[in-house]
Amino acid sequence: MDPDAVAKAFVEHYYSTFDTNRSGLAGLYQEASMLTFEGQKIQGVQSIVAKLTSLPFQQCKHNISTVDCQPSGPASGMLVFVSGNLQLAGEEHALKFSQMFHLMPTPQGSFYVFNDIFRLNYS
Hints:
- The chain has 123 residues and is an alpha+beta fold.
- The chain has helices at 3-20, 45-53; strands at 29-37, 40-43, 60-72, 77-88, 95-105, 111-121.
- The protein has 2 helices and 6 strands.
- Strands 2-1-6-5-4-3 form a 6-stranded mixed β-sheet, with helices on one face.
- The longest helix has 18 residues, at 3-20.
Protein backbone atom coordinates (compact mmCIF):
# COMPACT_ATOMS: atom_id res chain seq x y z
CA MET A 1 0.00 0.00 0.00
CA ASP A 2 1.41 3.35 -1.06
CA PRO A 3 0.22 5.94 1.52
CA ASP A 4 0.55 8.82 -0.96
CA ALA A 5 -1.61 7.00 -3.51
CA VAL A 6 -4.23 6.15 -0.85
CA ALA A 7 -4.28 9.78 0.35
CA LYS A 8 -4.60 11.12 -3.20
CA ALA A 9 -7.45 8.72 -4.04
CA PHE A 10 -9.24 9.52 -0.76
CA VAL A 11 -8.94 13.29 -1.28
CA GLU A 12 -10.24 13.08 -4.85
CA HIS A 13 -13.20 10.95 -3.74
CA TYR A 14 -14.01 13.05 -0.65
CA TYR A 15 -14.06 16.45 -2.36
CA SER A 16 -15.76 15.19 -5.53
CA THR A 17 -18.53 13.75 -3.33
CA PHE A 18 -18.68 16.87 -1.14
CA ASP A 19 -19.06 19.09 -4.21
CA THR A 20 -21.79 16.98 -5.85
CA ASN A 21 -23.65 15.02 -3.13
CA ARG A 22 -22.69 15.84 0.46
CA SER A 23 -25.02 13.24 1.96
CA GLY A 24 -22.99 10.65 0.05
CA LEU A 25 -20.12 11.25 2.51
CA ALA A 26 -21.97 9.21 5.18
CA GLY A 27 -20.20 6.03 4.09
CA LEU A 28 -16.81 7.53 4.94
CA TYR A 29 -17.63 8.03 8.64
CA GLN A 30 -18.54 5.73 11.55
CA GLU A 31 -20.33 6.34 14.85
CA ALA A 32 -17.03 7.01 16.67
CA SER A 33 -15.94 9.53 14.01
CA MET A 34 -15.55 13.17 15.02
CA LEU A 35 -15.65 16.33 12.91
CA THR A 36 -14.41 19.68 14.19
CA PHE A 37 -15.80 22.29 11.81
CA GLU A 38 -14.57 25.81 12.51
CA GLY A 39 -14.18 24.88 16.21
CA GLN A 40 -17.54 23.07 16.58
CA LYS A 41 -17.13 19.40 17.59
CA ILE A 42 -19.61 16.93 16.10
CA GLN A 43 -19.62 13.15 16.60
CA GLY A 44 -21.34 10.31 14.78
CA VAL A 45 -22.34 9.71 11.17
CA GLN A 46 -25.81 11.28 11.31
CA SER A 47 -24.65 14.40 13.14
CA ILE A 48 -21.67 14.90 10.83
CA VAL A 49 -23.74 14.50 7.67
CA ALA A 50 -26.43 16.78 9.12
CA LYS A 51 -23.79 19.47 9.68
CA LEU A 52 -22.27 19.12 6.21
CA THR A 53 -25.62 19.13 4.42
CA SER A 54 -26.86 22.16 6.40
CA LEU A 55 -23.98 24.47 5.45
CA PRO A 56 -25.30 27.81 4.12
CA PHE A 57 -24.38 27.12 0.48
CA GLN A 58 -25.64 24.56 -1.98
CA GLN A 59 -22.96 24.57 -4.65
CA CYS A 60 -19.20 24.73 -4.24
CA LYS A 61 -15.99 23.54 -5.83
CA HIS A 62 -12.86 22.54 -3.92
CA ASN A 63 -9.55 23.19 -5.68
CA ILE A 64 -6.82 21.28 -3.89
CA SER A 65 -3.37 22.86 -3.60
CA THR A 66 -1.51 20.37 -1.38
CA VAL A 67 -1.99 16.89 0.08
CA ASP A 68 0.45 15.62 2.71
CA CYS A 69 0.20 12.28 4.47
CA GLN A 70 1.93 10.24 7.15
CA PRO A 71 1.39 6.75 8.52
CA SER A 72 -0.22 6.92 11.97
CA GLY A 73 0.27 4.45 14.78
CA PRO A 74 0.30 0.68 15.10
CA ALA A 75 -3.27 0.31 13.74
CA SER A 76 -2.10 1.33 10.22
CA GLY A 77 -3.96 4.63 10.23
CA MET A 78 -3.03 7.63 8.12
CA LEU A 79 -2.97 11.37 8.68
CA VAL A 80 -3.91 13.38 5.60
CA PHE A 81 -3.51 17.17 5.56
CA VAL A 82 -5.14 19.14 2.73
CA SER A 83 -4.99 22.79 1.77
CA GLY A 84 -6.74 24.55 -1.05
CA ASN A 85 -9.41 26.95 -2.21
CA LEU A 86 -13.16 26.69 -1.82
CA GLN A 87 -15.16 28.45 -4.52
CA LEU A 88 -18.78 29.09 -3.59
CA ALA A 89 -21.36 29.52 -6.34
CA GLY A 90 -22.01 33.20 -7.03
CA GLU A 91 -18.96 34.41 -5.08
CA GLU A 92 -16.15 36.24 -6.84
CA HIS A 93 -13.34 35.26 -4.45
CA ALA A 94 -12.43 31.78 -3.31
CA LEU A 95 -11.95 30.98 0.38
CA LYS A 96 -8.73 29.35 1.51
CA PHE A 97 -9.13 26.25 3.69
CA SER A 98 -7.17 23.56 5.49
CA GLN A 99 -8.49 20.15 6.47
CA MET A 100 -6.93 17.25 8.35
CA PHE A 101 -8.23 13.68 8.18
CA HIS A 102 -7.20 10.78 10.41
CA LEU A 103 -8.05 7.69 8.38
CA MET A 104 -8.36 4.29 10.00
CA PRO A 105 -8.49 0.92 8.23
CA THR A 106 -11.69 -1.11 8.01
CA PRO A 107 -11.82 -4.92 8.18
CA GLN A 108 -12.80 -4.82 4.48
CA GLY A 109 -9.46 -3.28 3.54
CA SER A 110 -10.54 0.31 2.95
CA PHE A 111 -10.42 3.35 5.24
CA TYR A 112 -12.90 5.47 7.18
CA VAL A 113 -12.56 8.97 8.62
CA PHE A 114 -11.96 8.74 12.37
CA ASN A 115 -11.09 12.44 12.83
CA ASP A 116 -11.80 15.37 10.52
CA ILE A 117 -10.78 18.96 11.32
CA PHE A 118 -11.77 21.79 8.95
CA ARG A 119 -10.78 25.47 9.10
CA LEU A 120 -11.11 28.39 6.76
CA ASN A 121 -7.84 30.34 6.53
CA TYR A 122 -8.39 34.07 6.79
CA SER A 123 -5.55 36.39 5.79
